[in-house]
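## retry 2 of 3
previous attempt timed out at serialization; input unchanged, resubmitting
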Amino acid sequence: MKLLKSTRVSVFRRFDAFCISIFAAVFPGFLNSGSALTLSSPTAQSGVVSFFFDSIPDQLFTVQSSGSLSSGWLDASYYLGTGAPISFSAQMTADQQFFRVRITAFQALELSPNSPTLATGPVSLPDAVVGASYLEQIFPALTGLPPYTMRISGFPPDAVTLIVTSNQTANASVQVVTTGLGLVADQRRQFTISVVDSLNTTNTRNYDLRVIAPLPQIAIDRLVLKAGEATNVNLTANGGTGPLSWSLISGTLPAGIVLSTNGLLAGTPTADASELNEDGRYTNIIEVADSFTDRITGVLSARKATNAVQLLVRLSYVLNIRASRTNGPSLRQTCFVCHGPGFLPDFEPLSALTLIHVKSGSGAECGTSRVYVAPRDPSDSLIYEKVTAPPCGERMPQGGPYLSDQRTQRLARWIRELTNLDTD
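## retry succeeded, writing output
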C-alpha cells in the first residue's frame, strides 16, 4: 500500500492554492511555501484512508485523489471552512491511492454568465442565428459548495433546447443548444435557471435569448436591361433584419437608371447606355444595410454587405439598329433606298417583327428558306451575312460603301442578345 502511517506531510503552494500532499515523496511541480497546516497522521484500515485537517473560515477545501502522482487528480469531496477541523475518509481504490487538499477563497453561490443584463434585469445570452448551430453554457462558476443541482423553468425560443448535464456534481451545467434549423427570426424569450449547492444555498437568474436573421447577403449579381424599355426591379437580399437600405458604393449606373434606398432599380436606359464600350456592361458595387439592433441597448447597429452587380443594357432595334447612330448600322438610312415600304426586308416599321423569323421573299437570290434575323445566331441571319460575306448574291449595301467592322459587330451583338419574345 502506498499510503503509510509514517508518510511525510508537506505543505506546498502553486498560484493561489495550497496543496497538502499525502504520499512518500514531494509532489513534483509544487514549490515549498513554508506555510503550515495541521494535518493528522493518516490511517488506513480495511482499505479506508482517513485523516483530518484544520480549516479556515470562509475558505473552500477540496480534497482531490488520484492513482498517480503526476496526473489524473479528481475532486473527491468539498468542505466549507469554519475554523473547526475537517474529517475526511474514503475507500482506497486503484484511482484513489494519493490525496491532496486544495484551498481557495470561498465565494457565494453564483451562476455564470451573470452579465450583460438588460434594463429589466435578465442576463442576455449571445444571439442565436437562424440556420447556425449554437451552444452556450450556464454553470455555477466554481462558487458555493459543490456538488450542484441545476433546475430549469420557462421555455427558450422554438428549436432551442435546454439540457442539464452532470447534475449533482461539481461540473453541473445547463447547455443552451440548437442546430439552427427551425429557429424563427425575431423570436425572443426568457427562461429561468436555478442552482442549489450542498449548503442548500440557492441562486436563481433569468436569462434572455433572441433569435436573429443571418447577415444580409445580396441575392443578385446580374441584371439584364434594354435600351428604351422601362425598368422596375427590386433588388433582393437573403438574411438581414428588415427594413433593408440600399446604396451604390462605386461604379456608374446606366444613363436613365436610378437606385432608391429601398432597393428599387428604376428608369429607362438610353440608347447611349446600351452602346457603352460596345458591350453595354456596367459593374457596380452595391451595399445593403439592415436594421439590426444591439440586443442589450436596442440601439441601431446595422450590418452591411456588398456585392458586385453587373448590369447589361441590351441594344434596341428601334433606338440602336434602325435609327441613325454614330457607328451604328443605321439600317433604315443604309437600306431604305432600295428596300422601301413593304419590300422585304422592310425597315420602315418601328418593329423588328418584319425581320425576326421572316423568310426571304420569292425570287430572291438566296431562296425563300433563309431567315433575315434568327435570334441569338448572327451566322444564320441573312441580313448579317449580306452586309459581311454573303453566301449568295451581292454584298450590301449594293455597290458600297460597306459597313465598317464596328457597325457590323453592333448588328451582330443585337442579334445575339435577342430573345424569342422580342419585338424590338
